[in-house]
Design goal:
The chain is of the alpha+beta class and 334 residues long. The chain folds into 2 domains: 21-190, Beta Polymerase, domain 2 (2-Layer Sandwich), CATH 3.30.460.90; 196-332, Poly(a)-polymerase, middle domain (Orthogonal Bundle). Helices cover 45% and strands 16% of the residues.
């Protein structure tokens, strides 16, 4: 694919290489909603399946839910929320929590350790085995991956990662949390509602331009020669950048300004907006230096591309953007 202008190059690049295919996204949402309905029936259709939290059985989270996922669509995450039925928790740290199940919660008790603390691995295994009861999924791959039961169907390109969860009562500050498996048998805190709301609010503050911008930067992060930044940290670095701004300056100028900011902000703390994990930026100093250097190069490419386009040198401008984003950015048509 070749182009005559930078703008048409961005349009094709975003549509064909960055953003999820709209038809595939529609199909994925439909298949997810169908799975939701199947899961909600498990307490009545699967022997000894624990009670779910009525009216709030499922909760979307992750980049697909926040609309920040880029190609390929490889996984869709959501919580399956169980009723605690009087279960209490003891928090040793945010990722080391014990759930104590009362005798009255008979089905949860069957998934406990000998001391009646709920074993998160047993809960995920129960969910995993229950998925095979759905006739349409009997030939699918179903396995446990850390805190999730993962469902991979041959008819789809994506996995469903289903994470069992409980929601807490309000604490002394009036907050509630989701408690999910920590991957080693116990539990940990999270709250995807805050991530979802923050992303939505920042996007709305900049006229709906931020989601697409996040996806562009995530594409760069994955395809750049610089060390990779985790997807979640990358999203928060972008959101922190927009927290310090007041207006949208246009996609190309924002790309330039973001890389100027990233040169220094990669050395800064980027705190978990949920106030659970603390500083998300745990990258090694040497890694931060490499990312900063690459961000400086990208800032130069973006500035030069903008200046060349302003001079009417569209071919040279397109080539600068190809240096920044890679060969999938369309070449100039001679």
């Amino acid at each position: 694919m070749t182009v005559k202008t930078v703008n048409s190059g961005f349009d094709i690049f975003v549509k064909d290489f960055v953003d999820l295919d709209k038809n595939k996204t529609t199909k994925a949402r439909s298949s997810r909603d169908w799975l939701y309905d199947q899961l909600k029936s498990f307490p009545s259709s699967v022997e000894n399946f624990p009670k779910l939290y009525g009216g709030k059985e499922t909760k979307g989270f992750g980049s697909f839910r926040r609309r920040t996922k880029i190609r390929p669509l490889d996984d869709i995450d959501f919580l399956l929320v169980f009723s605690g039925e009087g279960t209490t928790y003891t928090e040793y740290s945010v990722d080391d929590i014990e759930l104590s199940v009362p005798e009255s919660a008979e089905k949860l008790r069957k998934l406990c350790n000998d001391d009646n603390t709920l074993n998160s691995i047993k809960v995920v295994e129960k969910l995993k085995k229950s998925l095979s009861n759905i006739p349409q999924y009997q030939k699918s791959e179903i396995h446990r991956r850390q805190e999730a039961a993962t469902l991979k169907m041959t008819s789809y390109d994506w996995n469903f990662d289903i994470v069992p969860a409980f929601i807490t009562s309000e604490d002394s500050q009036g907050r509630t949390y989701y408690i999910i498996p920590n991957g080693s048998g116990k539990w940990k805190k999270t709250d995807p509602r805050i991530d979802n709301e923050r992303t939505k609010d920042v996007n709305q503050s900049f006229s709906g331009n931020v989601l697409g911008f996040i996806r562009l930067i995530k594409y760069w992060n994955i395809n750049s020669s610089a060390p990779k930044i985790s997807s979640y940290l990358m999203e928060n670095i972008v959101l922190d950048y927009f927290d310090g701004k007041y207006s949208w300056l246009g996609r190309k100028q924002e790309i330039s300004d973001f890389f100027w900011d990233l040169k220094t902000s990669i050395f800064n703390s980027h705190h978990d907006p949920k106030r659970i994990q603390g500083d998300l930026n745990t990258l090694d100093y040497e890694v931060k230096i490499k990312i900063s250097d690459q961000a400086g190069n990208c800032y130069d490419y973006a500035c030069e591309a903008i200046e060349l386009e302003n001079q009417g040198k569209h071919k040279d401008a397109v080539e600068k953007w190809r240096k920044l984003f890679g060969i999938e950015f369309p070449a100039y048509e001679e």
